[in-house]
Each structure stands twice: as structure tokens, then as C-alpha cells.
Amino acid sequence: MSKYPNTFSLSKPTYSPSQLDDYINNKYVQGSTETFPGNLAFSEQKSNYIDAGNFALKEVFLKIPVSPANVTSGTDYLYHTLVGKSGWRMVYHNDRVVHQYNENRYDQIDHLTYGHSKLLSRLMTTVTNNALADVSLSDDFNDMAQQVAAAYLSTVDSAELLAKLKTTIQRFVAVYASIDLPHYQAIATNVAQQPDAYLEKTITDVHHFIDLIQNWPAILKNTQALELAPFSISADNSR
Q1: How far is C-alpha 220 from the chain's CA centre?
Q2: Separation of first and last alpha carbons in the chain
Q3: pLDDT at 239
């Protein structure tokens, strides 16, 4: 068994105990002891790498929308996958952000909705991994967008994808059920009672995402033409 708490397996449900040990040790234990040796470099010039930070996300976003975000999470991770499968390269750094959480935060959230969002995120990741498994993407974001739409379209209704989505749900339930805390047990029970609903929503969301990608240039053109003044927030009504 892994020496780390099984709650870590929520982020890597397919990892074996030894793989999970390596993941936690390399990413968190050893990773947190490293010192970043220099300054991050940013450039406004086009080159064969993607700068770290919001500049990079904006450049991709202008051509490709994020994956469906209706009660799910982590949708911007799609960009990591797309860039990694093209000729672009990302700049990484080991700067750390220290989070301080409210000690009562677990009493203040809707655990079923949170579990719902985490499962939908994993299901969308399963779709992306299946659709792009053997795809090399163009460096041109316009071409990349069409490749991505075609890749999703070719796999969304396949028996192979359906089987993988069912496996994702089964593993999700097994991991949550293995954690001896009431809110995780409740999430596992809730998901196990309605697997078909998650399958149907995922497939529907992917079809909507394909439509969104294909219409994204027109959507952006229309939104960029909007006058923003009516949407501005003044100091008097910002609270």
C-alpha cells in the first residue's frame, strides 16, 4: 500500500501505490525543496514556445475555447494537452503558491456538487486523451482548432470511448468509496446511482464543444465588437 493518504489518489486514480508514492515524492516532497535559479523570461515575440502565465492562455483562447465548463473544473488544462501535442513548447517554473484555507471550509461547501464537478472534469479528460491519442497538432492555432474539432467528432460516439468513460466512472466511485469520510462516501453513492446520467451529459457536452470550436471565430468577432461601457462596474456598485 502507498505510504501516502489515499485521498491523493483522487488526482491520479489510475496510479498504482508505488506510482502514487513516486508522484507525491517528486512533485511535492522533492519539488518543494528546489530553488528556482533565475528570473522567468517573457516575450511578446512569436517563437516556438509558449510563455508561462496568462499571456499564453490568451493566445490559445483566441483561437480555441476551453472545454465545457458547465459544473465542472480544470477546463484550462486542455491547453496543456494541445500545446504538448504541437510544435509549441511551454515554459515551466517551480515557483510555489502557499494557500491558506478557512479551517471550516469543508463545512461550507456542497460536497455532492463538488464531487459532480470533479467527475465531469475527469470524464472530459478521458474524452480528450482518447480523441487526441494519436494526433499531432499544427503549430498554427487556426489549423489546430479544426484538427481538435475533427478529433473529438471522430471519437465522441464510438464504443471505445463509451467503454473508457464507464471505466473512468467506476474508478472514480472506487476511489471515493475507499476514503473513510462521510462526504466522500456520499459522493461515491450518488455517482454510483446515476452513471448513465454522467455518460449522457459528457457526450452531449462534447457535441456542444465541437459546435463551439467550429463557430468560435464568429463568436469572437461578434463579442469583440461589443461596447464594453454598459458592462463596467463602478466603485459604488462593486460590492
Answers
A1: 22
A2: 50
A3: 47
